[in-house]
Amino acid sequence: MIKIAPSILASDFARLGEEVKDVEAAGADYIHVDVMDGHFVPNITIGAPIVRALRPVTTLPLDVHLMIENPDLYIEEFADAGADILTVHAEACPHLHRTIQLIKSTGTKAGVVINPGTPVEAIKHVIEDVDLVLLMTVNPGFGGQAFIERVLSKITETKQLAASLGVSPEIEVDGGVNAETARLCIEAGATVLVAGSAIYNQSDRKAAIDQIRHS
Ligand code: DX5
Ligand code: ZN
Protein backbone atom coordinates (compact mmCIF):
# COMPACT_ATOMS: atom_id res chain seq x y z
CA MET A 1 0.00 0.00 0.00
CA ILE A 2 1.52 3.28 -1.15
CA LYS A 3 1.47 6.12 1.38
CA ILE A 4 0.93 9.73 0.36
CA ALA A 5 2.55 12.58 2.27
CA PRO A 6 1.29 16.01 1.20
CA SER A 7 3.92 18.71 1.71
CA ILE A 8 2.41 21.70 3.47
CA LEU A 9 5.06 23.89 1.84
CA ALA A 10 2.61 24.29 -1.05
CA SER A 11 -0.38 25.02 1.19
CA ASP A 12 -1.91 28.37 2.14
CA PHE A 13 0.05 29.23 5.31
CA ALA A 14 -2.62 31.73 6.37
CA ARG A 15 -5.03 28.78 6.69
CA LEU A 16 -2.52 26.10 7.69
CA GLY A 17 -4.71 24.18 10.15
CA GLU A 18 -7.55 23.88 7.64
CA GLU A 19 -5.14 22.92 4.88
CA VAL A 20 -3.84 20.04 7.01
CA LYS A 21 -7.37 18.90 7.92
CA ASP A 22 -8.34 19.07 4.26
CA VAL A 23 -5.67 16.59 3.10
CA GLU A 24 -6.32 14.36 6.12
CA ALA A 25 -9.99 14.13 5.07
CA ALA A 26 -8.82 13.52 1.50
CA GLY A 27 -6.92 10.37 2.53
CA ALA A 28 -3.36 11.52 3.23
CA ASP A 29 -1.19 9.12 5.24
CA TYR A 30 1.45 11.53 6.59
CA ILE A 31 1.78 15.31 6.81
CA HIS A 32 5.17 16.29 5.35
CA VAL A 33 6.73 19.33 7.03
CA ASP A 34 9.65 21.00 5.24
CA VAL A 35 12.00 22.75 7.65
CA MET A 36 14.61 24.96 5.93
CA ASP A 37 17.21 27.15 7.61
CA GLY A 38 18.59 29.38 4.85
CA HIS A 39 22.02 27.73 5.27
CA PHE A 40 21.79 24.09 4.24
CA VAL A 41 19.31 25.19 1.57
CA PRO A 42 18.77 28.67 0.11
CA ASN A 43 15.31 29.19 1.62
CA ILE A 44 13.79 29.71 5.07
CA THR A 45 10.47 28.11 5.95
CA ILE A 46 9.17 26.96 9.30
CA GLY A 47 10.36 25.58 12.63
CA ALA A 48 9.34 23.61 15.70
CA PRO A 49 6.62 26.08 16.85
CA ILE A 50 4.61 25.23 13.71
CA VAL A 51 4.99 21.49 14.38
CA ARG A 52 3.73 22.11 17.91
CA ALA A 53 0.78 24.12 16.59
CA LEU A 54 -0.15 21.38 14.10
CA ARG A 55 0.11 18.52 16.59
CA PRO A 56 -3.45 18.88 17.95
CA VAL A 57 -4.86 19.59 14.47
CA THR A 58 -4.30 16.12 12.99
CA THR A 59 -3.94 12.50 14.07
CA LEU A 60 -1.70 11.77 11.07
CA PRO A 61 2.02 11.24 11.64
CA LEU A 62 4.02 14.45 11.21
CA ASP A 63 6.84 13.60 8.81
CA VAL A 64 9.42 16.30 9.48
CA HIS A 65 12.11 16.82 6.84
CA LEU A 66 15.00 18.77 8.36
CA MET A 67 16.90 20.70 5.69
CA ILE A 68 19.12 22.35 8.27
CA GLU A 69 22.73 22.47 9.39
CA ASN A 70 23.56 21.10 12.86
CA PRO A 71 20.29 19.16 13.23
CA ASP A 72 21.54 17.68 16.53
CA LEU A 73 20.86 21.06 18.16
CA TYR A 74 17.14 20.90 17.31
CA ILE A 75 16.17 17.22 17.41
CA GLU A 76 14.87 17.23 20.98
CA GLU A 77 12.87 20.39 20.32
CA PHE A 78 11.17 18.88 17.25
CA ALA A 79 10.51 15.60 19.05
CA ASP A 80 8.99 17.46 21.98
CA ALA A 81 6.88 19.55 19.59
CA GLY A 82 5.25 16.35 18.33
CA ALA A 83 7.18 15.15 15.28
CA ASP A 84 6.61 11.43 14.57
CA ILE A 85 9.37 11.01 12.01
CA LEU A 86 12.53 13.14 11.94
CA THR A 87 14.58 12.91 8.77
CA VAL A 88 18.08 14.34 8.50
CA HIS A 89 20.31 14.92 5.48
CA ALA A 90 23.42 12.73 5.29
CA GLU A 91 25.13 15.76 3.71
CA ALA A 92 24.46 17.86 6.84
CA CYS A 93 25.60 15.26 9.38
CA PRO A 94 29.34 14.60 9.84
CA HIS A 95 28.39 12.15 12.60
CA LEU A 96 25.40 10.60 10.88
CA HIS A 97 25.25 7.46 13.01
CA ARG A 98 25.28 9.52 16.20
CA THR A 99 22.55 11.84 14.91
CA ILE A 100 20.33 8.88 14.06
CA GLN A 101 20.84 7.42 17.53
CA LEU A 102 19.96 10.82 19.00
CA ILE A 103 16.67 10.86 17.08
CA LYS A 104 15.87 7.33 18.26
CA SER A 105 16.66 8.23 21.86
CA THR A 106 13.75 10.70 21.77
CA GLY A 107 11.33 7.91 20.80
CA THR A 108 10.78 9.45 17.37
CA LYS A 109 11.15 7.43 14.16
CA ALA A 110 14.42 8.15 12.36
CA GLY A 111 14.85 8.90 8.69
CA VAL A 112 17.87 9.66 6.55
CA VAL A 113 17.76 11.62 3.29
CA ILE A 114 20.17 12.13 0.41
CA ASN A 115 20.23 14.76 -2.32
CA PRO A 116 20.05 13.83 -6.02
CA GLY A 117 23.85 14.13 -6.35
CA THR A 118 24.67 11.93 -3.35
CA PRO A 119 25.24 8.21 -3.93
CA VAL A 120 23.26 5.55 -2.03
CA GLU A 121 26.65 4.44 -0.69
CA ALA A 122 26.41 7.40 1.75
CA ILE A 123 23.68 5.65 3.76
CA LYS A 124 24.95 2.09 3.44
CA HIS A 125 26.21 1.93 7.01
CA VAL A 126 23.13 3.43 8.68
CA ILE A 127 20.29 1.91 6.68
CA GLU A 128 19.84 -0.85 9.27
CA ASP A 129 19.19 1.80 11.93
CA VAL A 130 16.52 3.88 10.20
CA ASP A 131 12.77 3.59 9.76
CA LEU A 132 12.76 5.58 6.55
CA VAL A 133 15.08 6.47 3.68
CA LEU A 134 14.16 9.60 1.74
CA LEU A 135 15.52 10.07 -1.76
CA MET A 136 15.31 13.64 -3.01
CA THR A 137 14.04 13.79 -6.59
CA VAL A 138 14.79 17.54 -6.76
CA ASN A 139 17.53 19.60 -5.18
CA PRO A 140 15.98 20.66 -1.87
CA GLY A 141 14.96 24.23 -1.17
CA PHE A 142 11.80 24.91 -3.14
CA GLY A 143 8.50 23.35 -4.11
CA GLY A 144 7.33 23.14 -7.70
CA GLN A 145 10.59 21.95 -9.29
CA ALA A 146 10.94 19.35 -12.04
CA PHE A 147 11.43 15.68 -11.11
CA ILE A 148 14.96 14.37 -11.75
CA GLU A 149 14.51 10.99 -13.47
CA ARG A 150 18.04 9.84 -12.86
CA VAL A 151 17.18 9.31 -9.18
CA LEU A 152 14.92 6.38 -10.13
CA SER A 153 17.85 3.97 -10.22
CA LYS A 154 18.73 5.03 -6.66
CA ILE A 155 15.28 3.92 -5.48
CA THR A 156 15.91 0.42 -6.82
CA GLU A 157 19.44 0.45 -5.46
CA THR A 158 18.18 1.44 -1.97
CA LYS A 159 15.56 -1.29 -2.04
CA GLN A 160 18.19 -3.87 -3.01
CA LEU A 161 20.62 -2.65 -0.35
CA ALA A 162 17.94 -2.88 2.34
CA ALA A 163 16.89 -6.36 1.20
CA SER A 164 20.50 -7.57 1.19
CA LEU A 165 20.75 -6.53 4.86
CA GLY A 166 17.37 -7.99 5.79
CA VAL A 167 15.70 -4.67 6.62
CA SER A 168 12.74 -2.90 5.03
CA PRO A 169 12.67 0.81 5.81
CA GLU A 170 10.03 2.93 4.12
CA ILE A 171 11.46 4.35 0.89
CA GLU A 172 10.16 7.87 0.39
CA VAL A 173 10.62 10.20 -2.56
CA ASP A 174 10.30 13.98 -2.49
CA GLY A 175 10.21 16.58 -5.23
CA GLY A 176 8.33 16.92 -8.51
CA VAL A 177 6.02 13.99 -7.72
CA ASN A 178 2.79 14.05 -9.71
CA ALA A 179 0.52 11.41 -11.24
CA GLU A 180 3.04 10.66 -14.01
CA THR A 181 6.27 10.62 -12.02
CA ALA A 182 4.59 8.79 -9.11
CA ARG A 183 4.13 5.73 -11.30
CA LEU A 184 7.86 5.61 -12.08
CA CYS A 185 8.71 5.91 -8.36
CA ILE A 186 6.30 3.15 -7.37
CA GLU A 187 7.64 0.85 -10.10
CA ALA A 188 11.18 1.48 -8.84
CA GLY A 189 10.20 0.55 -5.27
CA ALA A 190 9.12 3.73 -3.44
CA THR A 191 6.58 3.21 -0.65
CA VAL A 192 5.91 6.82 0.44
CA LEU A 193 5.36 9.67 -2.00
CA VAL A 194 5.69 13.30 -0.93
CA ALA A 195 3.76 15.75 -3.10
CA GLY A 196 3.35 19.47 -2.56
CA SER A 197 2.14 21.38 -5.59
CA ALA A 198 0.52 18.34 -7.24
CA ILE A 199 -1.89 18.16 -4.28
CA TYR A 200 -2.20 21.67 -2.88
CA ASN A 201 -2.52 23.38 -6.27
CA GLN A 202 -5.62 21.29 -7.01
CA SER A 203 -9.01 22.29 -5.63
CA ASP A 204 -10.07 18.63 -5.30
CA ARG A 205 -7.35 17.26 -3.01
CA LYS A 206 -8.98 13.82 -2.76
CA ALA A 207 -8.89 13.38 -6.53
CA ALA A 208 -5.26 14.56 -6.58
CA ILE A 209 -4.22 12.10 -3.85
CA ASP A 210 -6.11 9.20 -5.43
CA GLN A 211 -4.55 9.91 -8.82
CA ILE A 212 -1.04 9.87 -7.38
CA ARG A 213 -1.64 6.78 -5.25
CA HIS A 214 -3.16 4.75 -8.07
CA SER A 215 -0.96 6.07 -10.88
C1 DX5 B 1 11.78 20.46 -1.47
C2 DX5 B 1 10.88 19.93 -0.38
C3 DX5 B 1 9.70 19.21 -0.90
C4 DX5 B 1 8.77 20.09 -1.69
C5 DX5 B 1 7.98 19.24 -2.63
O1 DX5 B 1 12.91 21.02 -0.90
O2 DX5 B 1 11.59 19.04 0.45
O3 DX5 B 1 9.01 18.53 0.12
O4 DX5 B 1 7.88 20.80 -0.88
O5 DX5 B 1 7.21 20.08 -3.44
P1 DX5 B 1 6.72 19.63 -4.89
O6 DX5 B 1 5.92 18.39 -4.72
O7 DX5 B 1 5.93 20.80 -5.34
O8 DX5 B 1 7.95 19.38 -5.71
ZN1 ZN C 1 10.49 17.61 1.86
UniProtKB/TrEMBL annotation:
Protein residues bound to substrate: 7, 65, 141-144, 174-176, 196-197
Stored CDD domains: RPE (cd00429)
Keywords, alphabetical: Carbohydrate metabolism, Cobalt, Isomerase, Manganese, Metal-binding, Zinc
GO biological process: pentose catabolic process; pentose-phosphate shunt
Co-factor: note: Binds 1 divalent metal cation per subunit.
Co-factor(s): Mn(2+); Co(2+); Zn(2+); Fe(2+)
PANTHER family: RIBULOSE-5-PHOSPHATE-3-EPIMERASE
Family per record: Belongs to the ribulose-phosphate 3-epimerase family.
Identification of the protein by name: Ribulose-phosphate 3-epimerase
Function description: Catalyzes the reversible epimerization of D-ribulose 5-phosphate to D-xylulose 5-phosphate.
Any Gene Ontology CC annotation: cytoplasm
Catalyses which reaction(s): D-ribulose 5-phosphate = D-xylulose 5-phosphate
Pathway(s): Carbohydrate degradation
Gene source species: Guptibacillus hwajinpoensis
MF-aspect GO terms: D-ribulose-phosphate 3-epimerase activity; metal ion binding
The keyword Heme belongs to this UniProt entry's keyword annotation: no
Domain of life: Bacteria
EC number: 5.1.3.1
Residue positions of the active site: 34 (proton acceptor), 174 (proton donor)
SUPFAM superfamilies tied to this protein: Ribulose-phoshate binding barrel (SSF51366)
GN (gene name): rpe
